[in-house]
Write a structure and sequence with these properties.
Layout lengths: L6 H16 L3 E3 L5 H13 L2 E5 L2 H7 L2 E7 L1 H20 L6 H4 L2
Antiparallel strand pairs: 1-3, 2-3
Helix pairs in contact: 1-4
Length: 104
């Protein structure tokens, strides 16, 4: 699926992956714009990424987390593929040297 995702959609997918891994699926709405919410709701309908609101009784103590996400296997695959591609792009543009490169 990542071949069909725009740059903004890939960014959203990577943000949601961080939420899923580092925040037990909790999503901070302040880090999403209207287009992100539209896409996340589309993904929820298709089952690619489950996404929704947290119960109002729990939002108070969870602030600023107001939404949640869970990944499908396809979403995990797409995310892994994009993380690997991003790492390779960044590595090509690094501005530091390895110790063995300095010796040359």
């Amino acid at each position: 699926m990542s071949k069909r995702l725009s740059r903004q959609q890939l960014s959203l997918l990577l943000y949601l992956e961080t939420c899923a891994v580092d925040h037990t699926g909790l999503v901070d709405q302040r880090k999403m714009n209207a287009a992100d919410f539209r896409k996340a709701n589309e993904w929820n309908k298709s089952g690619f990424v489950k996404f929704g609101r947290i119960c109002s009784k729990d939002i108070g103590w969870l602030m600023p987390y107001t939404h949640w996400c869970e990944f499908s296997e396809d979403a995990w695959t797409a995310t892994h593929s994009e993380r690997k591609a991003r790492a390779n792009r960044l590595l090509k543009n690094r501005d530091w040297q390895r110790t063995e490169e300095q010796a040359k």
